Amino acid sequence: MASEAAVTPDPDSNNSGLYLIPVGILSAIALVLVVLRIWTRVTRTRRLYLDDWLILIAEPLSLTNFCLGAAAVSYGWGRQLLTLDPADVVQSRKLQFALQTTWIFTLCFVRLSVACSLLRFGTEKWWKWTLYVIIGLQILISSSYVMIQFGQCRPVSINWEQVPNVECWDVNAIIDYGWAIAGVYVTMDLVLSLMPIKLIRSLHRSTSEKILIGILMALGLLATGVACGKMTTFDDFGKGDPMQATIRASLLAKLEEVVGIIATSLPCLKSPAEQALRKLGIVKEHQLTTPSFVNSVPLPNLPMDHAARSDSDGSLPTKGDIRVDSVSVSVQLGSSHSNTHSSNGPRKEGWEAV
What we know:
Number of domains: 2
CATH class of the largest domain: Mainly Alpha
CATH topology of the largest domain: Rhopdopsin 7-helix transmembrane proteins
């Protein structure tokens, strides 16, 4: 009797909320942060960097991915297979296949964005080559997953419907490859999360601000934790109800992507976050000696009346054409400041940061 009850279809069984609720909340947060990130860039630095363009590609793909998941749920993803109409099962599995495909590209663009953002803040060979290796590995791994996605079974339509004369790769080989790549991904996430420590140590900032920046830039460790959790689903690949057993694995894969978008966008909002904490009295105003995340180019000798206390938006008072803040630094000295000029006339020097 117990075994009969175990196989009896339950029309009320539905675990789709396990996917939709957390993914929906985090996707909304990621969208807001990306919009704020781009707005901050445009209003503060007047330009978008390569990592901004990459995240602008990743975010719409991420939203499309979530919409595909929601559509798959509407056709029965998360419910027991035996309780569904066969036509709905085909539609749901088509949408799940599209969801997996867009996820591969989205995660690739997110990691590339993180690596490209760090490329701007180091000139040493080891720094640049570490990031170049990560970028190359990510592109190769994503390309291999696309090949697996479309090549593991012939015809491809076996992914959503029953067809005769199917040829598939050994599933154990795919699982072993997934374990190996998961180890590479965890290592990459750790490196990308810990590399900013070098930048934070070089800042001429108060301890509270360094802690704030460290927290913002170390949020990538959450993505590392999610990647580790995702590995616990590998042994369940191909097991259980095909419409329910994939929910948990898809959830962890999606969280790895969305948390990555959030983690790579928050450091770009350091200045607005600092202003909010200053208004709350958590971060005190301090003497600014060197802007955050500027390139290692020596500042010219500024007039004494510019060595002032930072104002409420984290920048020195503006006088003439000189402005210093935590997002960008530009110095335009006219001929009136002849002590910093050569005899050839006016000179312009500039530094840009996050």
